[in-house]
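Hi F.,

I've been meaning to write this up properly since the lab meeting, where we talked about keeping a consistent format for the predictions we share between groups. The idea is simple: the sequence comes first, exactly as it goes in, then the structure tokens exactly as they come out, then a line or two of notes. No screenshots and no reformatting. I'm using this chain as the first example so we have something concrete to point to.
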Amino acid sequence: MSGSLEARVRRVKAVIFDLDDTLVESKVDFPKFKRLVIERIVSFGEDRNDYSMTETVVRTIDRFEERQRRSGVPRAEIEKRLKMLDEIMDRVEMERADETEAYEGAKRLLEVLRRNGIKVGILTRGCHDYVSTVLERTGLADMVDSVECRRSHTKAKPNPEAYIRLVEALGVKREETIFIGDHPIDAACAANAGVPFVAVMTGDVPEEKLRESGSVEVFRNVADLAHWFEKALSD
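Output, unedited:
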């Protein structure tokens, strides 16, 4: 374990988490999610070959918005089309939200943090209704101080804008936070925000890639992370 992380944890005032595949096991059908978004984009006249199922939805939508702007589509129309894409994503996310389960150790981890006076934030691309449903279902809602989700009027990860807004909502300074997630996009967001990133391997990203992406430490899951935090905060 990095000594610098241990030292930082003793000074941390807020921990910010990704949600899906970090604290909870996501049931969202992401292939369907991406496919429907791309199909709608193509219906707006875009070339299907310019969009790939292998890239993130964030990158797909960013490219679409930029191409629409360069094509001279009025801003009001672009906003209307982006809203349609949001509605597609909302619908797919909510289809199986009631099946979502918290990972073993997630509740314990948040309890450890709260018991030590550390605030908890959630930074996710999920929509508000999805996040609310999942947090209530998993029993985590009462242990979360603030959430930043899609449609928050800030740019999505890895842009640090949403992270910074969440830090402000929590009433702490960036240097008093760390970010925990399961994906290189989370790591890039942390790097752009200038904060340490800690990874868990409950997503589909191998440990080597998580370390290459800039993780200061990688844990198997939040249960291991809860054990480590408990020890680090009691020393």
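Notes:
The chain has a mean pLDDT of 93.
Residues 159 and 189 are 6 Å apart (CA to CA).

If this format works for you, I'll send the rest the same way.

G.
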